[in-house]
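We emphasize that the prediction below concerns an isolated chain of 100 residues; any contacts that depend on oligomerization or on bound cofactors are therefore not represented. The input was used exactly as deposited, without trimming of termini.
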Amino acid sequence: MSIEVINEDGLCHMALEGELTIYTAVNYLQAFQEQSQGCKGMKIDLAGVTEIDTAGVQLLVALRQHVIGTESGLRLCNASESVLEVLELSRLTGQFAGIP
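Result of the prediction step, given as a token string:
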């Protein structure tokens, strides 16, 4: 599990790597809470996510809920095949900007 958060003028860029599962979701959430002070929106790069389960999906939904009403909202980018597959199966692709 690896996370990098860069705050550029209030827009937080997060790059996630590794599993986004029940075993890591809480760690990602804690890292987000610690590093995202002052974020007016969020862009999450999911290219490095190797596996995702329902806990990972719940984390993405929670992050989306957290930034609703902010200037830029939440945008997912570079979603890996595993992320795309799970979001399509759960019919959530339309809920996230940046997902085709």
